[in-house]
Amino acid sequence: MKNFLRTGKKTSRALLSLLAVQVLTAAISAEALAAKPESVSPNGVKTLSPEGGIQSTGPWDLGTRAGDYVYVAGMRGIDPATNKLVADEEGRIRQAFMNMKLVAESEGASLQDATRLVVYVTDMYRYRPIVNKVQEELWGEGPYPPRTIIEVDRLNQDDIVEVEGTFYAPKNKAAATKKDSNVSPNGVKTLSPEGGIQSTGPWDLGTRAGDNIYVAGMRGIDPATNKLVADEEGRIRQAFMNMKLVAESEGASLQDATRLVVYVTDMYRYRPIVNKVQEELWGEGPYPPRTIIEVDRLNQDDIVEVEGTFYAPKNKAAATKKDSNVSPNGVKTLSPEGGIQSTGPWDLGTRAGDNIYVAGMRGIDPATNTLVADEEGRIRQAFMNMKLVAESEGASLQDATRLVVYVTDMYRYRPIVNKVQEELWGEGPYPPRTIIEVDRLNQDDIVEVEGTFHAAVKGNK
Prior knowledge:
- This protein is an alpha+beta fold.
- It is built from 7 helices and 27 strands.
- A hairpin with a 4-residue loop joins β13 and β14.
- It starts with a helix and ends in a 7-residue tail after the last strand.
């Protein structure tokens, strides 16, 4: 009888232990399932918050993975150990790059797998040489990613530099098997086409990563002399032609542009010329989504810089459909019902493969095509205009892979941008974001929001 009771107690304890394990496992599984929607969007955009990363200073997260691409928020020189800015300038700039590197590496990308960089500084003469030095340390003798560097009025916390990057980390590594000094471990091909300009620093002209081509900020340098074209209209046209040459070297035309960002040093003087040149080059359209902003300074005190992304799928089957709104390579121009009217030679958005690119959106009321009067309402409308374009292709705000917010007063408008994002995204997760203060936006506006979204083409899961 004693043995029976002893055996019974052991059995009872074993059953209780097994039950406890099952309950704990079920609880962990339930927690994991509950957490999944917070880190992966309806269309598969994964939010990145890697161990060792900095803490966000607002409604944004450090990065996203969407398909084979990793997008990193504008990184500043914050020490992850203290979450405070590094004191010395060179150390702070190096830390900004290291913070970006950590996010990229968390998804299997190295610095050599960077497809594009945008560096924002508050003093071109003072900080560009340090940026160059740090890049040379980190990338060695190259190749280097295509880069755009601009001087802006202000960064968050009156910082000195912010670095935004896109990286390539294909899930299928077969694409990266070729051994080539111009091809990164993950298959990013550096572009230096014949007839192109010479780089003026640690950056190369472009990259191909998968089906996308990224072109560095191009200026009006004559490739024959490697000097700036003298007259303003000729220089602006040359900037676009330099971009065109890089895109065409990988089988893309201007009609295959998925997004453009144009930086000018005088909105009133140069925007009309940019518009004229685009109308010449793109004809009657359709046009790529565009963001145009006035900044403090460009390299060599130049007047304009044009950065572009293009689409040239290796499998051309995607471009077989005949449609006036679909480019030779399958870039679909987006003009959804209920959207605002364009104020120049640009359209509201494009779809290229699984990516949706939305032009810089401002707070224009689609019902009247005039700016919303009150500031908070206008900022909210800018986000709603972006949302409408994304939703027209099956993407939600939660499917945003990156945002850039341009404001004309950081202290005044950043808190409103934060409030609106918290309303629209709820408790998060949030897309990686870069927010900068610029000199001027079109129509002397106060805010402009540019976004990229991910929504797989039907049948591509």
